[in-house]
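User: Predict the complex.
Assistant: Input components as received:
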Amino acid sequence: MALLTQWYIAVAVLAVSFVTQEAFVPTVHAADSSFCGIVPQQLFCTEHRVHSPDGFELVLHRLSHGTATDSGATPVLIMHSEFLNADSWFELTSPADELLPLLLVNSGLDVWVGHERATYWSHGHLSLETNDTRFWDWTWDDQAQNDVPTYLDYINNTTGSAVHYIGLSQSATAGAAAATILRTSPMIKSLTLIGPTIYTGNTTSVILATWAFLFGDLIDQGNYDNGYQNGAFNFTTAFPGITSINGQSPVAAALQIISGLRTNTWSRFAYRTADRNNQAYGVPVAPNYHPEDIPTNIPVLVVYGGNDAVAPKAGVHLLLSRLRNVQTVFLPGYAHYDLLWSSRRTQDIFLPVLQFLQRHG
Ligand SMILES: *[C@@H]1O[C@H](CO)[C@@H](O)[C@H](O)[C@H]1NC(C)=O
Ligand SMILES: *[C@@H]1O[C@H](CO)[C@@H](O)[C@H](O)[C@H]1NC(C)=O
Ligand SMILES: *[C@@H]1O[C@H](CO)[C@@H](O)[C@H](O)[C@H]1NC(C)=O
Ligand SMILES: *[C@@H]1O[C@H](CO)[C@@H](O)[C@H](O)[C@H]1NC(C)=O
Ligand SMILES: CC(=O)N[C@H]1CO[C@H](CO)[C@@H](O)[C@@H]1O
């Protein structure tokens, strides 16, 4: 199918979905247990709350074996994929599977599990209710500019150390973007980017990418039945009808992704007018992020799949060509959601990630 036709269909799917909403309303279990309740019992778990500069509650859970974290243990922040919550780190995919947070704690790291803004375990705001469209008026670029720096600041304040950052999918994109920010990059010890959705222009399927953006959580519908709280947004109550696409609404967030698909750029959020871009960035066109701006003393590990239509191989190769201190794990058979849910992910992904962190202790 011609790319343009695919794009029109994708936009139509988007429009219809946002108008009807019922199409992708998952059932959500009540928040009847705290997050620490789903963490393996042998781990000691503490909850930490900070707020982003734009008022979003950002919750972190710190895991260790004893009540006192080894002083000197290197902190590692793990950020879940969009559409999922951090529970996803605690679900085994097969009998031989191991949990990444547990592997990291067992190898002596000081593990911080982060929750994205506006997700099940972290959806407070200093002044906005979730039924306010302004609560949803942001894109991954705000996570890069506000949230990742706030998590890292908090962890650096608490531990006095720079942090290994591990991000999956869009959290990889936000982490890499944050690593290009001068004030933030000194707090990053290494970057692990799993399925980074940075250059998406070579995707083989626009529809698939759009579909993944909107419906990715439903892939994991089975986990709702198991009592897990996956599905980042509580659409039933917390996702007001969107009537305008002029600002950074979730529709705009989707459009930013589609725009990235069309232009193969990695850019700041592009407002619709030169005036708004000028106000925000001092230039009429939203500026690009540059992988070259990630300091060379931050080692980067990129884990990517050969059949990934969301973080396509050609886009990852473009990223790799622009990174100056990079190692790779290439998994030819993997598609995007395999990077999250493969039954072989421990040997294929988690252990190589652990070795990378140990090399850059
Ligand atoms: C999600 O929606 C359900 C159903 O309306 C509600 O009971 C629950 O409290 C909501 N959860 C959150 C975290 O907002
Ligand atoms: C949003 O929720 C708050 C508190 O639950 C309520 O007071 C307010 O009227 C609601 N606003 C809208 C626009 O529904
Ligand atoms: C980190 O510490 C500085 C200095 O005390 C403080 O201004 C800042 O708010 C702290 N950051 C976070 C996220 O707690
Ligand atoms: C990927 O996209 C870029 C920019 O549109 C293009 O120059 C390049 O040929 C594409 N590569 C592949 C493998 O399709
Ligand atoms: C970037 C940054 O703020 N790094 C700090 C992390 O914490 C240590 C110890 O407090 C400081 O020396 C670093 O400057």
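The CA atoms of residues 140 and 174 lie 6 Å apart.
Let me know if you want any component modeled separately.
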